[in-house]
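Please, structure for the following, as C-alpha cells.
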Amino acid sequence: MTTSLSARADIFNRFYVAAMFAVIIAIGSCGIFAIVRGQESDNLVAQSFERANDASDMRTALDREDVELLWQMRQREGLESDRLVRATELFDATNLAVKRDGWASSQPLLKTLASRQATFVADSREVAGALSLGEYARAIRVDTERVRPNVTAMRHALDAISVGLYRASVADAAADRRFMWDLERLIGVVTLLGVLLMAGFAVLLGRYKRSADASAAATLAVLEQAALTDSLTTLGNNRSFYDDFERELARAKRHDHSLVLALIDVDDFKAVNDKGGHSHGDAVLAGVGERLGTMRQEDRGYRIGGDEFALILVETDPAAAALALGRLQSEIRECGLGATVSIGYVNLTGEQLHAESYELADTALYEAKRRGRNQTVCFENVSATVNVFSPRKADAVRTMIAQGLVSTAFQPIWDVQSTRPLGFEALARPLPELGLSGPQEAFDVAERIRQLPELDMLCTRKTLEAAANLPADSVIFLNYSPASLVDGGFDPKTFVATVRAAGLQPQQIVIEVTERRIDDPTTVALRVAALRALGVRIALDDTGSGHAGLEILSKVRFDFVKIDRGLIVEAMESGEARGVLAGIIAIARETGSYLIAEGIETGEMLDFVRKAHIPNFAGVRGIQGYLLGRPQTGQFDARSLEQHHDFLAARQLAEGGVPRSIDVVSGEESGTGNWLPSVKPLAFR
C-alpha cells in the first residue's frame, strides 16, 4: 500500500511540474507575442503618422505653389518668384520622401501626383512667361484651362491618399484591438487552465494526503506496537511495562483500588541456556510468555529483560494474587521445559501506592532467589527482614566502589581448647555518609547492580591495608561471594601476589565463601582447589542458613566451616535443627574441617556449642560473637583480647578442664576430650 501511494505521488508530482511548466511557458509566450505585436502596432501607427505628415506636407507645398502662382498673376510679374521655386522644391522633396518610404497602396496616386506636379511646374512657367511678355490673357487662359483643373486634381489625389491612410490606420487599429482581445482571451484561457490544473492537482493531492495519512497512521500504529512488543514472547517490552504501570498506578491512586506488581525471573537461565542451547532457552522464554498471556484479560504480562518478566494484576486482592501467582508458577514448572521461576510481588494499597513499588517487588524477588529459587515471596511477608533496593542506594554503592568509601573492622575468632584467638574476620563497613544501613545492604545492592566482584576486591584491598593493626602473624578471614570467585576477572595467582605485596603470606589468609547462594558449585570447587594449592585456606560461611550447605560440603574440601547463628539458635530449641547441625558436624568429621560457631552472644549459646558433638568427635572448636569481642576498627586492643581470653579460660576451668558435651542427635550429655585442633592458635605478645 505504501509503495503504491509513493508511486502515485511520484506520478502526481511529475504531472504537476510538467503542467505548471506548460502553463508558465504558454503565458510567457503570449506575453512575448503581445509585446512584439504591440511594437508592430506602434510601428504601424508611427508609419501611418509619418505618411499623414508627408501627405500634409505635399498639400502644404501644393497650396504654397498655387498661392504664389496666383500672386504672380495678380501682380502680373513675368519672372518666377523665389517663393514659388521654394514651394516647388518642398513639394518635390516631400514626393521623394514618399517614394523612399514606399507607399505600396498609394503608388498609382503618387505617380499621378508626380506627373501632375511636373505639368503644374511647366504650366506655371508658361504662365510666368506669358506674363513677362505682357500676354496677360494667355496667362489667364492657361491658368484657367490647365493649372486650375490640375491643382484641383492634385488636391483630390492628396485627399484620397489621406483618406486611404486614415482608413488603413483605422483598420490596423481595429485589427490590433481584435488581436489583443483574442490574446487576452487566450491568456485568460491558459490561466484558467492553469488554475484548473492546480485545483485538480490540489484535489488529487488532498485525496493522496488523506490516503497517505491513513496509511502512515496505520504504519505508525504497527511500528508503535512493534516498539512496545517483545518479538520473542509477543508480550509488552520494558518501555510498554513502564508506560502501562505508571498509568495503572495513577488509576489505582485515583480510584483507591488495589494493584499487584509481580516480577518473575527464570531460575538459572544461563545454565538452562548452556545446557539446552539457545533455541531451548528461547523456547523457555516463549513458554513463560505464553503462560503470562493466559492470565485474565485485564492483567498484562511483560518481558522486561533477558530472562526477567513483569505482571500487573489489576484490582486484585492479596489472597487472589497469591493464588494466581502460585498457579502460574506451577504451570511454568509443569510445562515440560525443565525450568522454574522465582516470583516476587507486592500488594499496592493505601500508602504503598506512593512508595517505590518496583523496588519493593524487586526486593521480594531477590529474597525468593536467595531462599533457593522456585519460590514465590510477597514483600509484606519479608518487609521486616530485608533491605529495599532503590536507585539512590545503587548510586551510593557505585560511589562507594569508585571512591573506596569502605573501612574495615576486625572481630576475633577463638579456639575453644586453647582459649586463644584463632584469627580475625575482616568485616567491611560502608562509611556513614553513604546512607546505607550496613554492609549487608551494600553487598545486596552490589549484587543487584552486578558489581559484587568489584566490591569484594575493594574490601580485600582495604583489609590488606588495615592488616597492620592486628597482632603479628594474625590469620585473616576474608569474605568472598561465590559470584566473585567464578568471575572472569578473579585470578588465584594474582590474588596471592596481592597478598604477598601487602607483606602477608598466603597461609595467613582464609577466604570465606558464603553458603547462601552458590550458583555454579563446579566452578567454585575449581577455584577453591586452585587457591588451596597456592596456600590460601577456605572457609564455608553461613552454613545452615540455606539449602546448599550440605551439597557443597560434599563436593568441596573446606578448611573451616562456619555455622550460621540462626541454626544454633534453632538447634537450642528444635530437634529438627539439631539434626541439621549433626549433619554438618558429621561431614566436618569426614572432611577434617574445623567448625566455628558464629554469633555467640550469650553464655547459654557458648555452653551449647562447646558441648555439641556427635559420638567420638568433638564438634565445634572455634567460636565468634559479641560475647567474645565486638568488631573493632583501627589498632586492635590487646587488653580487650586478654580480658576475653581470661573469660573463656575461666569458663572452661569452671567446667573442670574437660568439657561436657551434648549429642546433637539424642540431646544427651556425655564427656569427651577428642578436640583434635588442626590449627595453631595465636599467642599474645
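DSSP finds 21 helices and 17 strands in the chain. The domain at 407-671 is CATH 3.20.20.450 (TIM Barrel).
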